[in-house]
Amino acid sequence: AELREGYERFDPRAYLRNNYLPPRADFSSEEFVVPWKLRCLADTFASGEIRGQTLIDVGSGPTIYQLLSACDHFEEIVATDYLAVNREELGRWVRGDPGAFDWSPFIQHVCKIEGRGEPWQDKERRLRDRLRRILPIDVHRPDPLGAPLDPPADALLSAFCLEAVSPDRAAFARALLHVGSLLRPGGHALLLGALGESFYLAGPARLPVVP
């Protein structure tokens, strides 16, 4: 209940300003968190081992950076988030609405580190085409989407989510079990996060994280 109350104050635009604009969005060195995250994801998907028909992104928030390397390896990407305001923000980007957050510096950087010489606009278009569903999710329910995903996902991606919506480590473990039920047998689960983090900021919301 306390976590839900905190997330009622979540401001997607403030969160994006805090974390995905300069100075935080500094691409000059991989010592900074933003290019580190993009490199982790690019290297992981470049292996070619994680691929298939459907990828589900658990707790997308208002962001798409985590899907930029993934979109080359799946026919469909399903974004999910508990908050309607985040799902609306994602929808604005997918539709290309005026005023949607500008992810072009991230897309350009990913194209650069992937090194295929692809125009960044092609990757942007491909992700928009493949991001076909944006669904509500509650990772604390045994059936997080309210109904089984049919067919189950070939891969699961979750970046900075489960630890940020769980009150303690036991709840984190249960949430991981719940979202794992969305995967086909033998599918891959890819988690990206920060060790030792205890909170983050989204406008007026100061949100706890399980370290």
TrEMBL record:
PROSITE patterns: SAM_MT_NNMT_PNMT_TEMT. GO terms for molecular function: phenylethanolamine N-methyltransferase activity. Signal peptide: none annotated. GO terms for biological process: methylation. Pfam families: NNMT_PNMT_TEMT. The lineage of its organism: Eukaryota, Metazoa, Chordata, Craniata, Vertebrata. GO terms for cellular component: cytosol. This is PNMT methyltransferase. It comes from Piprites chloris (Wing-barred manakin). Belongs to the class I-like SAM-binding methyltransferase superfamily. NNMT/PNMT/TEMT family. The gene is Pnmt.
